[in-house]
């Protein structure tokens, strides 16, 4: 062991070592549960990362991605200075410029476009990063447009849309108090370890665990009492089949249904078609298992259900499938019930922290009154009615066609075109724009297609407000100085507001002032929050509330839980959209987008512990755990194709594209169902998904069920 290694291993190094331990958070994955981390810093560089003991939620733990923070932020392709393009779009030839010149150029171009074509000609977009969203949303509104979009055009929002269609709220599971836990598309061991720990705790208390997943996952193996291994995208049929059994056997909550449910008779009629035999045939789950799961779910309540932010809704029938899963919870009386489902009240960056943050006021006080319909608003009217964002899946089409109005400029904060179906279409559309500004940490392809590029920093290089469930708030301090000339996104947004000359005093006052504004009524200052070693419990925090919806009514049109949606009925009638059904009917998406010689269903995106979209494919530490892009397939499929572990296969779909990847043979999936991860530049799964393969309600791409021809190549 070297001297440095010995010193690093001591948790609190002595002053003679020159090593300081500083607290930060890992913001690599979703909001709400960002883990606390301790960074060991020497000479201004991070030399080691560990979890912070006592931190709300994570309590000293980190996942594979969190542990790779050092490798991630020191990626060699970090952007170093602001730049302007001097070559062709995509060529990657840039010249360094000052921050002032960058702000002035962006402001000048945007103000000119606004004067010529109106503010709606500009799209404000952010990728995965959640922390900057209230700021960017406000910037778009202050600029005068509703055209603000995020990566949530393919994540989480469709689940939330389904919840709010049925109940008027979004709900979360009360796992600590349930008797049955239903994990529907739930594999926290890969995607959210805090979720997995919660399920383990419920199991240890004696709760029954039902897992619905097309693969034999860690979760299914470790904790499931019953594993329903359905075919991908057949969730709606399974939920309707379970509902039919529950109604027929009289296991449903008659009192709740009588008092709080709208459209029960129509729903009952719909479900009545899903007999056990038919449900088994569609889903592939044996009838006895469906029966047993329905019986336990309905009779061993209260039951909490995990609703995934992706999986169920990553299908072209996903939104209705999700509504059917919610209907199951409703008829069993699990809504607004301790040990069942709790209505969530998120007040800051999607987090139900248990106290009020003025985020809504921050954004919506600036909402323009006379904006056009935002991008995607006409094509996806249900999305438009329920989500206060543009549906970015319609952006390439609108740029190409200029209808209903032209889009001329894009401000892209961390945009990865590879999350879109047929990503090349997105890049081609970007190239048609008059002006593109991109901020990112890294030199990405979208960056190479931009006119002005701004280098931004990671969460370990910035100060940021972060709220946690249970009433906690923190304001982090930078663990290290921003690398090179990078700045943080919110500082950039405030700088742009000023350069644009917007009539927005608060944004123009700068990032620190906006943070002060957020905490002004909380009885705690930024200084106190920054000084505290752990997040502080806010005085006004209150425990979770149950029963209010049952007492005061559900915030839908009828005041009830709508199994028949009056909202959708209204939209369908007004827009003449007979394809939109007020009831959560199931339709197969099996034969949509067929390809000649199809021999597998391809599911693109189930999480790997060492990958997060595009960002970790270039991190050697993480990459070493799965060095080459690979498709998981069953031993019988491998035999039929004549392919061995690591052998090369070509995947081809109706998009007309092919990718070549390695075969990874595993016993986790059904024969004929194969699994590929997305975001690789050299084997981009999303190029296999036709751009039109979208859910008509949510606009979400059907990433998880693509008919595919798989062929062995070479030897
Ligand atoms: N086939 C398939 N496709 C999918 C999915 C799937 O399951 N299957 N999942 C979908 C889902 S759920 C999601 S959430 C999306 C994710 O899609 P994206 O959000 O597009 O994913 P990332 O590749 O993480 O790209 C984020 C970009 O932001 C940059 N970035 C990181 N941190 C910051 C920051 O602080 N500021 C700025 N300005 N930039 C930053 C990164 O370098 C990267 O270039 O992908 C979707 N696409
Ligand atoms: N390591 C890692 N963690 C992540 C991410 C990451 O990329 N890597 N991404 C983050 C993001 S953006 C998100 S949205 C979340 C997503 O989090 P999850 O939704 O938990 O992630 P997945 O692994 O995509 O899906 C969970 C399970 O759903 C199953 N599944 C696939 N298709 C279907 C289906 O049709 N029906 C059902 N019932 N199940 C199905 C898969 O087999 C998988 O085991 O994870 C976050 N955490
Ligand atoms: Mo996501």
Polypeptide structure, described:
Keywords: Iron, Iron-sulfur, Metal-binding. Pfam families: Molybdop_Fe4S4, Molybdopterin, Molydop_binding. This is Molybdopterin-dependent oxidoreductase. Belongs to the prokaryotic molybdopterin-containing oxidoreductase family. By secondary structure, this protein is α/β, with parallel strands linked by helices. It folds into four domains: 71 residues, ADC-like domains (N-terminal domain of TfIIb); 263 residues, 3-Layer(aba) Sandwich (Rossmann fold); 175 residues, Dimethylsulfoxide Reductase, domain 2 (3-Layer(aba) Sandwich); 113 residues, Barwin-like endoglucanases (Beta Barrel), CATH 2.40.40. Helix content is 33%, strand content 17%. It has a seven-stranded mixed sheet. It has a six-stranded mixed beta barrel with strand order 22-26-23-25-24-27. Helix 19 links the parallel strand 15 and strand 16. Helix 6 crosses helix 15 and helix 10 crosses helix 14. The model has no long low-confidence stretch (mean pLDDT 95). One ligand MGD binds next to helix 7.
Bound molecules: ligand MGD, molybdenum atom
Radius of gyration, Cα only, in angstroms?
A: 25 Å
The CATH topology annotation of the largest domain reads as: Rossmann fold
Overall mean confidence score, pLDDT: 95
How much of the sequence lies in strands comes to: 15-25%
User: Strand pairing plus helix content: what structural class?
Assistant: alpha/beta
Secondary structure tally: strands: 27
CATH architecture grouping of the largest domain:
3-Layer(aba) Sandwich
Distance between the termini: 44 Å
Number of domains: 4
Report the biggest beta sheet as strand number plus sense, adding barrel if it closes: 7 strands, mixed
Q: Quick one: overall form?
A: globular
What topology, given as strand order, has the largest sheet?
Answer: 5-4-17-16-15-6-7
The count of helical stretches stands at 28
Which spans have pLDDT < 50 for at least 5 consecutive residues? none
**Can you tell me the CATH class of the largest domain?**
Alpha Beta
Organism: Enterocloster hominis
Protein name: Molybdopterin-dependent oxidoreductase
Domain 4Fe-4S Mo/W bis-MGD-type: 19-77
Keywords: Iron, Iron-sulfur, Metal-binding
């Amino acid at each position: 062991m070297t001297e440095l290694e010995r010193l690093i291993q001591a948790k609190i190094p002595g002053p003679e070592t020159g090593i300081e331990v500083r607290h930060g958070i890992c913001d690599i994955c979703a909001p709400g549960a960002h883990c606390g981390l301790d960074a060991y810093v020497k000479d201004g560089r991070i030399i080691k990362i560990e979890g912070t003991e006592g931190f709300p939620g994570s309590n000293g733990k980190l996942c594979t991605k969190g542990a790779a923070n050092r490798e991630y932020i020191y990626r060699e392709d970090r952007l170093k200075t602001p730049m302007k393009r001097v070559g062709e779009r995509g060529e990657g030839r840039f010249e360094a410029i000052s921050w002032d010149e960058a702000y002035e150029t962006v402001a000048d171009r945007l103000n000119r476009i606004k004067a010529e074509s109106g503010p709606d000609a500009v799209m404000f977009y952010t990728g995965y990063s959640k922390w900057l969203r209230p700021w960017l949303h406000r910037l778009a509104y202050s600029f005068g447009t509703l055209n603000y979009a995020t990566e949530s055009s393919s994540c989480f929002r469709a689940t939330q849309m389904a919840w709010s269609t049925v109940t008027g709220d979004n709900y979360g599971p009360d796992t600590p108090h349930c008797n049955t836990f239903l994990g529907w598309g739930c594999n926290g061991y890969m995607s959210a370890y805090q979720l997995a720990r919660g399920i383990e705790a419920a199991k240890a208390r004696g709760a029954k665990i039902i897992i619905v997943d097309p693969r034999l996952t860690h979760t299914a193996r470790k904790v499931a009492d019953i594993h329903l291994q359905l075919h991908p995208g057949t969730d709606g049929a399974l939920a309707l089949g379970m509902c039919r059994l529950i109604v027929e056997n009289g296991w449903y909550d008659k009192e709740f249904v009588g008092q709080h449910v709208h459209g029960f008779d129509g729903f009952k009629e719909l479900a009545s078609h899903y007999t056990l035999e038919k449900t088994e045939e569609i889903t592939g789950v044996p009838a006895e298992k469906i029966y047993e799961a329905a019986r336990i779910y309905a009779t061993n309540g209260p039951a909490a259900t995990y609703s995934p932010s992706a999986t169920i809704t990553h299908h072209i029938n996903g939104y209705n499938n999700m509504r059917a899963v919610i209907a199951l919870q409703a008829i069993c009386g699990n809504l607004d019930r301790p040990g069942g489902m709790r209505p969530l009240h998120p007040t800051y960056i999607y987090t139900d922290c248990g106290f009020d943050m003025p985020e809504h006021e921050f954004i919506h006080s600036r909402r323009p009154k006379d904006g056009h319909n935002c991008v995607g608003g006409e094509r996806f009217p249900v999305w438009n009615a329920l989500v206060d964002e543009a549906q970015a899946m319609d952006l390439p089409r609108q740029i190409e066609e200029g209808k209903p109005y032209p889009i001329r400029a894009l401000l892209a904060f961390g945009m990865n075109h590879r999350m879109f179906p047929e990503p090349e279409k997105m890049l081609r559309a970007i190239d048609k724009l008059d002006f593109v500004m991109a901020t990112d940490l890294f030199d990405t392809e979208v960056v190479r297609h931009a006119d002005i590029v701004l280098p931004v920093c990671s969460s370990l290089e910035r100060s940021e407000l972060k709220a946690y469930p249970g009433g906690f708030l923190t304001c982090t301090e930078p663990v290290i100085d921003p690398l090179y000339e990078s700045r943080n996104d919110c500082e950039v947004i405030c700088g742009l507001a000023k350069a644009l000359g917007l009539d927005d005093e608060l944004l123009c006052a700068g990032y620190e002032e906006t943070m002060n504004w957020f905490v002004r009524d909380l009885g705690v200052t930024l200084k106190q929050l920054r000084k505290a070693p752990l997040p502080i419990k806010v005085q006004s925090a209150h425990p979770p509330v149950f029963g209010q919806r049952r007492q005061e009514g559900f915030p839908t049109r009828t005041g009830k839980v709508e199994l028949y949606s009056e909202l959708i009925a209204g939209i369908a009638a007004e827009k003449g959209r007979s394809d939109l059904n007020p009831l959560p009917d199931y339709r197969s998406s099996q034969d949509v987008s067929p390809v000649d010689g199809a021999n597998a269903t391809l599911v693109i995106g189930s999480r790997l512990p060492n990958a997060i979209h595009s960002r970790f494919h270039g991190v050697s530490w993480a990459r070493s755990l799965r060095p080459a892009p690979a498709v998981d397939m069953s031993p019988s499929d491998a035999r039929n194709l004549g392919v061995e572990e690591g052998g090369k296969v070509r995947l081809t779909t109706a998009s007309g594209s092919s990718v070549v990847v390695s075969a990874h043979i595993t016993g986790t999936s059904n024969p004929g169902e194969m699994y590929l991860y997305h975001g690789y530049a050299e084997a981009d799964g999303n190029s296999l998904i036709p751009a039109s393969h979208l859910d008509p309600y949510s606009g979400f791409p059907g990433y998880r069920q693509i008919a595919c021809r798989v062929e062995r190549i070479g030897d």
